Protein: arginine--tRNA ligase
Organism: Gonapodya prolifera
Amino acid sequence: NAITNSRFTLTPSDPQLQAIIAESAQAGIHYQCNNAMSLFGKLKAAKALPNGVKSRGDVATTVLSNLDTSDFQGGETTFEVPAIAGTGFINIRVTSHVLAQRVHQMMREGVSVLAPSKYYGKRVVIDFSSPNVAKEMHVGHLRSTIIGDTLARTLEFCGVDLVRLNHIGDWGTQFGMLIEYMSDVAKSGSAEGLDPDSERVADLQVMYRAAKKRFDDDEDFKTRARVAVTKLQGGDPDSIRRWQRICDASRREFQAIYDRLGVQLVERGESFYNPMLAGVVEELQKLGVAKESDGAMCVFVEGREDPLIIRKSDGGYGYGTTDMAALKHRLNVEKAEWIIYVTDVGQASHFDLVFAAGRKAKWLPQDETQSPRVSHVGFGLVLGEDGKKFKTRSGDVVRLVELLDEAKDRCAATIQEYRGATVQTEDQPAPETTGASVSFTPAELDHAAGAMGYGAVKYADLKNSRLSNYRFSFDSMLSLKGDTAVYLLYAHARIASIFRKTDRDVPALAKVTVPILAHPREFELALHLCRFTEAIENLLEDLMPNRLTSYLYDLSEKFNLFYQDCRVIGSGEYEESRLVLCEATAVVMRKCFHLLGITELYKI
Ligand code: ARG
């Protein structure tokens, strides 16, 4: 138990601990059980130190002597006999035998053998992207889409039975204003941003702004807009038709983004829960969970002064009501064992309230670690290069389609520029696929530019710790050097180019060849390949996609070291084995790309 609870939990920011990590890495230590120290402290405080245990080292020795060491004996073992180091660290080394077998198994049976089994078959709902109808889908929604999609892909890779929900803001008081504005425009015949007679709403943002202005300036309009909301909620066919048109127009815009990014979502907007709202409020009232306060129906939870308002004093329902109805539906109808919500951190407090209200109603277990679980995945802001609010040079909101276009165009230019030249960087080897020998058809160029451009935008987002704000910079995300998707795509294409130098069928070879891990670089590469499982576990543990981006970057580094020190083509008895290691690296890289929503390239 001591071992299994002992992940390597040193915080890398502490210089002293960092030194320990560096030292262990140098000594070739793969795992370290470091809780003999804390165990000693606890036992001492509880006056429960066993006889003869006087130091941390003694605790470590006791742990070690109680380990089932059957696996450490004999020839073909998983671990080498552990050693105690320092004041009581138990150092563990994996054997090359087990690594070679594991790599071989992965090549034979597929990379999914490396997926952690813990999540297999679980029913999970993930709520992400979730933009608002008639409003601009902004960079915040882009983050939600990118982060949510990676979490979703990772869960699917682990065999989760997943429902990807787009909780679109398609209901609420703003529709009264929009519908009323549409009918004003239709009457006056002037098309301010929309064409009322066709089935198209030309420019929703323009219309939204104009409607909002009229709403703020014109009391009569305000009153009419309020009436329009009631009509819509009452199911008036004309209102429903206009509402539908507005939603359709937005939907087309959202879909254009999802298509480019390769993101799949099931639309289940706020309006879906509309028929359930009254019942949910009634239920919470009956359960004694909700009570009236200042005319509004509220759920008060422990430790918070502000309640979750589930019915406003004017009788209307809001964001909180919908989220309670959605929670109930996801639990009872979707049978979710885990619900994940991806929004900016600004909504953390809203979700805390919703989750606490769910526990108060006993829809959710009191123990947060028990199933069904709920998690809010918050993220920080996207800032401009100047560290201020992200906007265009003229100060407008950045349109996502334009942003993606620019990323792609820049990549197309880069590829064309480099195709004739050799890409040379100081610390990272030049991709061998570049140079005059690689030629592209226009379709190939378009494909490669899209893969690089969209991949770069995604990777630059995912590699940050999601809670922090980050600066959006095309220059740094499209850099050929360093921790970027472009660099990693090159690294992959470079491996593909190695295979072009041999007549062998490398994938077939990889199915029948157990790699030889004789050189330390081969060993380190194989160890890192096998640690893919840990990267996935870590990602799902704290729902941090950057666990996977740093794993991928490290993999490319380990591969570089291997490739630098171990000749592959023409290495005689090692050639087959090394080709297999190249193939295994390419396979794991591609799986990482896939989980990050990046399209791999075989030549750039
Ligand atoms: N539409 C919301 C927004 O743009 C996000 C919705 C998130 N999901 C939810 N169940 N509340 O802020």
Notes: The two ends are 49 Å apart (CA to CA).
